[in-house]
Amino acid sequence: MISVESYKRPETIAEALKLLKTGKFGIIAGGTDVIPQMRHTPARSLLDIGKLGLDFVRENDNTVEIGAAATHSQIQNNPLIQRFLPLLSTACGLVGSWQIRNRGTIGGNIVNASPCADSAPALLIYDTKVVLLSSQGRRSVNLSEFIKKPYLTVLTAKDLVHSFVCQKGDDSAGNSFIKLGRRQAVNISRMTIAVSLVRDDSNKITMAKIAVGSVFPTPTRISELENKLIGQIVSKELFDETADLAADLMIKASGVRWSTPYKKPVLIGLMRRALVGASGIKEIPA
Amino acid sequence: MSSDLTPKIKFRLNGIDMEKEVPAGWTLLRYLREELGLTGTKCGCEIGECGACTVLMNGKPVNSCLVMAPQIENASIWTIEGVTPPGGTALHPVQKAFIECDAVHCGFCTPGMVMTTIGLLLQNKKPDNSQIKQALAGNLCRCTGYIQIFEAVRLAAAMISENDMRPFRENISEN
Question: In chain A, where are the structural domains located?
Answer without folding.
Answer: 4-48, 57-167, 181-279
